[in-house]
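User: Okay, second chain of the day. Same drill as before: sequence in, structure tokens out.
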Amino acid sequence: MDKQDVIALFAHLEHGDGANFFALVADDVDWIVEGTHPLAGHYHSKKDFIAGTFQKLAKVLPDGVQLTVQNVLIDGAWAVVELRSMATAHSGLRFDNRYCWLCRFADAKIVEVRAYLDSWLVGELFRQNPIDDEAPT
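Assistant: Same drill. Structure tokens below.
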């Protein structure tokens, strides 16, 4: 994957088209969301990652995460993607978060991710907008 391929892939997330983005994520992706907050964890599949993150965010952000790509760097099989979210929670909290996703590609699919973000803001989002379930380990 070159830089333009990665930008095109992440454009799906920017346009709210998670289905086309996740079509290029391996079913057995190894995805770590770093931190100590309700979304943090080590996810061993695409299904578990979506359930533990995007589905939880959808419960507290009525218009979704609303991601935009800020920067993309490529080094071999790895891409570093800087993202920003601009969203408003049910409680009125502005969820303006920044992310750094380190993504490893194989056969034009994401097979590994380490994601870094503002843990405090995620924790505050769920303190103000509690949901019933907890993130997996």
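Helices lie at 3-14, 18-22, 46-52, 54-60, 119-128.

User: Thanks, on to the next one.
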